[in-house]
Amino acid sequence: MKANFQAALAVAPQHKEVPFPEAEYEERLNRIRRLMEGFGIELLFLTSPESLYYVSGFQSEWYQAQSGRNFPPTSGIAVQVNHDTTIHFETPSEAMLVAIGTVSKDVRIFPIESRRDGISFILKELKAAGWLKGSVGLELYNYRPNPVVSKLYRKGFESTGMKVIDGTDIVREARRKKSALEMDCLVEAGRIADIGMAAARDAIQPGVMELEVFAAFTSAMARAGGEFPAILPPVMSGFRSNCLHPLASRKPIQMGERVNVDLCGVFNRYHCNIARSFWVGEPPAEVAALHGKSIKAFEIIQSQLKPGLKVKRLLESIRDYYVEAGIFEDCYWSGGYELGIAFPPDWVGTYIYDLSMTKETDIFGPMSVVNHECNFFAPNSAGLSVTIETLLFQENHAQFACSTPRELQVLFA
Length: 413
Known about the structure:
Layout: H1 3-11, H2 22-39, E1 43-46, H3 49-56, E2 76-80, E3 87-90, H4 95-101, E4 107-109, H5 119-128, E5 135-138, H6 147-159, E6 163-166, H7 168-176, H8 180-203, H9 210-223, E7 235-237, E8 257-267, E9 270-280, H10 285-294, H11 297-304, E10 309-310, H12 311-325, E11 331-337, E12 352-353, E13 363-364, E14 368-377, E15 384-393, E16 398-400, E17 409-411
Parallel strand pairs: 1-5, 3-4, 5-6, 9-17
Antiparallel strand pairs: 1-2, 2-3, 7-8, 8-9, 10-13, 11-12, 11-14, 14-15, 15-16
Helix pairs in contact: 2-7, 8-9, 11-12
């Protein structure tokens, strides 16, 4: 990578493609630094794709997460509690991507002789910057880097006299409250999710493979400007619809079968989750009845929906309704989780709620986003009745992100 590479790199800043203005990233960094003070952390070294994206805009198709030993995942971004700029460390292979896709101003590329493993280079540069003092937070509750590389990082920082602690929750906590620009992305992701579900409905017919339905909604969302989601969206039909997380398969859909589709619309990596149940042919009366009862939970949610809503109070209201309706014992799960930035392999956010884990003080705060899942086993092994919505808690009001009907959608009756 010599003359031609250097020539392209020199003009790369003219081709910037960053999702948000610089002021947005400045506010995010300030929020992280305030949280670092509360955690007593002088240095935070970020390695997860979500954190790298949140602070800089960096996104890539490959993070060396499951690659061979010759490609250890050692790149990352250093945040110092008293500095208003970060140091972004990357491999030479991604120097161009950093130049066009981030707001990072201090970018340090691994030397070519150690381009595969930059830990020693990172430590040397941080020492020269005077950043190796006090404690360092690593994202230990994360799949990147893997345990072997994480151990090498720990050993490296400890060799400089620093105390290593788990800093995973710092950026995750910063990300929980969205900005106005982030909420705009989630509204757009909701629009894309509706387009995807409409395409799924149109693709479902007897003889069509589950994979063809998957292809139809994936294509429709991409044409609408949607990005690929962090989880492969499942399509499950027939007896497979008794499972909630199977991959779409070559199984042909048949008359008299349920088809469940669970997908996310994605815009600037912000995810909006929606799931719906379809029936090919005329559904059994008891199946339709259970589905109709289950989705009334969203009427309860609608009646209480507002920023500051107490999570436990809502969950108890829903549970009480399920008990009264006589369907509580068939509930697969009544709860949900935070949504926002996500990269493969997961779109499930940090905050997760149901009656087994929710605290009395938990609220759905302003500028937060969660989904809510309403999933029930139907009679006669007829599959799960699956309905999922995304809830957007804006500053002064709250709303459902999607408008696709929740009723059991009957096709070819």
